[in-house]
Amino acid sequence: MVECKICGAKALINKSQREHKEFTKLYCTCKNRDCGHKFVLNLEFSHTTKPSKLKEQDYFKYILTCLPNDKKQEILEVLMNDQAQSALNLHSST
Question: InterPro entries, alphabetically (predicted)?
């Protein structure tokens, strides 16, 4: 819950702007109409309290399964082109 530092009422997060993987700006507005304070909070990653169950390879697979089909197709095309280029380079060096 976000609170207004002026009146202590609840505040609404209107927008978030990710600056970095571990840092986000939260643009907020106080819900108390008599106050109406607008402010920015900085949200920063501090530390892990329990490691993820996803190992690096599992995490990569998880991310891929979450992508829409058109993005999966783009990745497949890049990998196929890279594989074809590698095969050409291998044949040209022999």
Answer: Znf_Ogr/Delta (IPR007684)
Instruction: Supply the DSSP symbol for 39.
Output: E
Model confidence pLDDT, tens digit, residues 16-68: 999 998 999 999 999 999 999 999 999 999 999 998 877 777 778 888 889 99
Number of domains in the chain: 2
Eight-state DSSP code of residue 60: H
- In angstroms and rounded to an integer, the radius of gyration of the C-alpha atoms of the chain is 23
Domain that holds residue 39: 11-44
* Residue 28 maps to a domain: yes
80 found inside a domain: yes
The answer to whether the CB of 56 falls within 8 A of the CB of 34 is no
pLDDT at 81 over 80: yes
Among 62, 25, 59, 60, smallest CA distance to 44 is for: 25
Asked whether residue 22 is assigned to any structural domain, the reply reads yes
